Amino acid sequence: MNESDTYAVLSDALLAVLYAAGPIMAIALVVGLAIALFQALTQIQEMTLTFVPKIVAIFIGLLVFMPLMYTVVKSLSDQAFDMMMNGGL
To answer: What is the C-alpha to C-alpha distance for residues 2 and 5, in angstroms, rounded to an integer?
Structure first.
C-alpha cells in the first residue's frame, strides 16, 4: 500500500462521513436558523423552544435519511474489506 492508496482510502472515508452526516447537519442548521429568526422576531427567549423542535426534526431526518447513511457506510466498509482480502490494506 503506497501513499496514493492511503490518500484514496482517507478521501473515501472523509466523503462517507460528509455524505452520511451532511443531511442531518443541514436539517439541524435550517431548523436552528428558523427558530433563531422566530425568537428574534417575537422576543421569546424560551430555552425549550430551541431544543425540542430541533430534536424532533433530527429524529425525523434520521428516519428519512437512514437508508442513505446505511448504503454509504456499507459501501465504504465493503471497499475496505475487499482491500483487506486482496492484501492492499
So the answer is: 5
